[in-house]
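#onboarding

Welcome to the new folks! Below is a worked example of what a typical request in this channel looks like: someone posts a single protein sequence, and someone else replies with the predicted structure as tokens. Don't worry about understanding the tokens yet, we'll cover that in week two.

Example request:
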Amino acid sequence: MRRAEVIGIETGFRILAADENGGLATIHCERILLATGARERFMPFPGWTLPGVLSTGAVQTLIKQSGCSRPRQLWLAAPGFF
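Example response:
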């Protein structure tokens, strides 16, 4: 199964997965590794190269590195999930 998304983990090391065409499959595993990290999928838009326009990941990194608590004004636009 290619380009699949795990939609459930069941007892007995079984994974319920959905492919991009809507097909479902139960996959039996010996082990399951959970990789809970995230990846930003930045999508360019008109004006995205202007000064002060940052991706959500860049904003998160900036806040963590600078230690600032909260900006005075923040506009957030993010792509949806699929």
